[in-house]
Structures are given as structure tokens and as C-alpha cells.
Amino acid sequence: MGTPECWLASAGNWANFSDQFMMMRRGTPSASEEERRKTARIRRVPAVQRAYEFQRLLDSVEVENRAEIARQYGISRARVTQILNLLTLPGEVLDYIRDLPEPEQLRYSERMLRAIVALRSKDAQTRAFERLRCAGRARCL
Predict the structure, then answer these.
(1) For residues 133 and 112, what is the distance between their CA atoms, to the nearest angstrom?
(2) pLDDT, tens digit, 9 for 90 and up, residues 87-122
(3) Among 3, 9, 78, 96, which has the highest number of CB atoms less than 10 A from its own CB?
(4) What is the maximal distance between C-alpha atoms in the chain?
């Protein structure tokens, strides 16, 4: 007696199943949405830049909530919140990172910045960022 054919098994793997399931729920994604999803996974974007992008999406009418951003970018809602929390860093820290050229921005990973966000006071966050900025440099102004 053979096992019955299961549509989940025929999907091949979880990614295929997930894609098929989402298409059944929403229909075929638009080309721009599909392209955004692909580039979001492939292109390495500086953490603060990604946070500003998510905030722009929330402020516009493109998405309704964080859950929709999570679906579009293939990440969890908790990750969206973690990334958006970077915008709570002191303004001078955000300005400094934003004014750097993109390759230099990648030096400040989301994980590093998240540890600074966890500090309670803005002064402590600023001091911690200054230590991070000067780390590994012989001379720091």
C-alpha cells in the first residue's frame, strides 16, 4: 500500500511550499513586489538605511503594518521591530552613520547597534557608539 500523494511533499521543500501557499492566498505577486523581495534578500543594506526604509514604508500607504513588511522581506515581525528600534538611537549617532558612504556604513552592523540601543540613557548610547567608532583606530578625534 503506497502513501497517498501529499501536496506539501510535492512542493519539494519549505520555500516552495511557502511560495505556493502565499500565491494561493494572495494570487501571483506583482513583478515589483517580487523584485523587491529578491533584492531585499540579495543586496546587503546598511542597518540604519534599512530602518529608514521600513519607516518610510510605514509612513506611506504602501504597507499597513509591520507584519506586511515582514511578509514582503521574508523576515519575522520581531526582526522588523529590531531593525526599526535602531531609529531610537540618538540623533547625532543616526546622522553620523547616515552621512557615511554606504560601504563604510556596513562597518556598523545591526547587531552592534542593537547592543547600543539596549542601553537606557541617550548619553550612555552616545558614549558606547563613540567607543565603537574609535575601536581599532590608532587615532580617533
Answers:
(1) 11
(2) 999 999 999 999 999 888 888 989 999 999 999 999
(3) 96
(4) 76
Tens of pLDDT along 49-68? Answer: 999 999 999 999 889 999 99
**Residues 46 and 105: beta-carbon distance below 8 Å:** yes
E strands in 11-115: none
> Could you give the CA distance from residue 65 to residue 81 in angstroms, rounded to a whole number?
11
- Tell me the Ramachandran region of residue 90: left when phi exceeds 0, alpha when psi lies from -120 to 50, beta otherwise: beta
Cell numbers representing residue 102 in the block: 554606504
Q: Are 56 and 49 in contact (CB under 8 A)?
A: no
Residues 6+ apart with CB under 8 A from 100: none
